[in-house]
Amino acid sequence: MTLQLLIATLDDRIKSIPDLLLEPLPDVSYLVSWQQSEGYEPCPVPAALKRDDVKLATMQGVGLSRNRNNCLDLATGDICLIADDDCRYTASGLQEIVKQFQSHPDVAVATFKARNEEACKRYPDVSFDLSKPARKYYVTSCEIAVRREAVAGKVKFNERFGLGSGVFDCGEESIFIHDALQAGLKCTFFPIEVVEQLGATTDTTHAAEPRVLMARGAIMYKTHSHCMLFRAIAVAWRLRRNKGIPFNYALEHTIKGYSLMQALEEEE
Q: What is the pLDDT at residue 231?
C-alpha cells in the first residue's frame, strides 16, 4: 500500500517544501501542487525537489481548495495525506497512517492528531466515527488522509471555502468531511499524532475577519441548518469570551455567511 503526501503551496512558498521532505522511504512519495498567482514570476525550482519520489505540478491562479483539488486529480497513491508547506513529518507517523488504513479496510477518510505549539488543540483519547463526532472536536486539513479510490469521483474540496476562495476564508476541511459523510463514505478519527504544523492557523490569527466569521455561518447552513440561530448565538458568545470579538459583530457576520451559503446553493 503506497502513501502519497499531497502538498499545496503558493508562489515563493515552494522554497519551503524541501524542509518537509524525509529521506526516501519505501512506498512513500510526494506530490507538490505549485499554485502561481497572477503576475507572479516563478523562482527556480529548489534542487532538493528533483528526486524520484517527488512529483511537481503547476497551476495558475489562487484558491487553496482549488490547489488541493488539483492534488486529488493528479494523485496516484493508494492513501493520500493532505499536507501544507508548513508541516513536518516522521517516518513512524507516516507508517502509522498506512497501518490504520490496512487495519480498517472500510475506512475511506481518516483524521489524525497534529501538534501545533502556537495553536494548541485538544483531541479525544479514543477513536470514533466522524458521523457522530466527539464534543468540541473539529478537523484541520493536515490531519486528513483518504483512500484515493474510495473518494475519487465522490468528494472534493468545496472551492467556495479556504484561503483565496474569495467567498469564505476557511472551513474547507469541515465541509470536506461533511460532504464525504453525505456521500456515504466511512470517516473515522484515530487518536494518533502524525504531523507537526508550524505556525498559527487561519482560525487563530484571522478569527475576527468577516470572511472567516462568515465561513462559520456557511458551515452551519451545510451541517446544522435546523438549529442555526441557537448555534450562531453560542458561537458569537464563545468568540467574545475567548477571543474578545464583539458579540454583535460576530453574530452579524455568522448570519451573513449562513444567508450567503443558502443563496449560493439556491442558485445552483
A: 86
Counting beta carbons within 10 angstroms of the beta carbon of residue 30, is it exposed (0 to 12), middle (13 to 18) or buried (19 or more)?
buried
User: Which whole number is the average pLDDT over 137-157?
Assistant: 96
Q: What is the pTM of this model?
A: 0.94
Alpha carbon separation from 98 to 55, 79, 95, 103, 191 (Å, rounded): 20, 7, 5, 9, 14
Q: Are strands 79-84 and 144-147 parallel, antiparallel or unpaired?
A: antiparallel
The contacts of residue 70 (CB under 8 Å, 6+ apart) are 33, 35, 57, 59
Q: Which amino acid is at 51?
A: R
CA separation for the pair 35, 2 (Å, rounded): 25
Rounded Cα gap, residues 128 and 146, in angstroms: 16
| Structural contact between residues 11 and 40, judged by C-beta atoms closer than 8 angstroms | yes
Distance CA 256, CA 210 (A): 9
Tell whether the model's pLDDT for residue 202 goes beyond 70: no
pLDDT band at 203 (very low <50, low <70, confident <90, very high): low
The cell 458568545 sits on which residue? 237
Percent of the chain with pLDDT over 70: 98
